[in-house]
C-alpha cells in the first residue's frame, strides 16, 4: 500500500505502514516489547488533540475497535493501553508536535511468535516506567507481524 502521507511522517519514526484511512495512518511501531504495538498518526499536521475534527474522532473510534479485534485474533492480546504521548516533540527546537496514538497490546501470558518469546512483565501496570529500552525485531519478523495483523484487520 502506498501512502502519500507516509513520506512526510518518516521524520517522526513512527514505524512501518500497516494501513491508511481517510484521516489516519496505522503503523507497526519500532518498539515491539509488546508484540503488535502500533502507532496511529493523524494525516494532517495538528499539534493539539483538542483540535481534532468530529469526523477524525469518529474514524479513530472505528480503528480502535477493528485494530483491537485484529490483535486479539492474531496474537491473543489480553487488553490494550492507548496513549497520546507527544512529549518527545518538545525536545526539538522549535517544538514540532503531531497528534498520534500509541496502541500497546498487553499480555497476561508469555506469547510466542515465529520462535520469539514476548513477555509483559509489568502486566496490570503502566508500561511508562518499563526499563530496558526498546525491542527491535529483525525485518523478516516485522514483515510477518505486519502480515498477521493485516490478515485480521478489516479496515
Output the keywords:
AP-4-A_phosphorylase, HIT family, subunit A, 7 strands, two-stranded antiparallel ribbon, HIT-like_sf, 3 helices, single chain, alpha+beta, globular, 155 residues, 5-stranded antiparallel β-sheet
Question: What does the model show?
Answer:
The protein has 155 residues and is α+β, with helices and mostly antiparallel strands. The protein has one domain (6-152): HIT-like (HIT family, subunit A, 2-Layer Sandwich), CATH 3.30.428. 26% of the residues lie in helices and 21% in strands. The strands form 2 sheets. It has a 5-stranded antiparallel sheet, covered by helices on one side. It is globular. The two termini are 13 Å apart. The mean pLDDT is 87.
Give the terminus-to-terminus CA distance.
13 Å
Topology-level CATH name: HIT family, subunit A
- Oligomeric description of these chains: single chain
Q: What portion of the residues fall into strands of 2 or more residues?
A: 15-25%
Largest sheet: 5 strands, antiparallel
Contiguous uncertain segments of 5+ residues: none
What does the radius of gyration come to? 15 Å
The CATH class, by name, is Alpha Beta
* Overall morphology: globular
| Overall SS class | alpha+beta
Helix-strand string? HEEEHEEEEH
User: Can you count the helices?
Assistant: 3
Task: Please report the total strand number as a whole number.
Answer: 7
- Residue-averaged pLDDT: 87
Strand order of the largest sheet: 1-2-3-5-4
Total number of distinct structural domains: 1
CATH superfamily: HIT-like
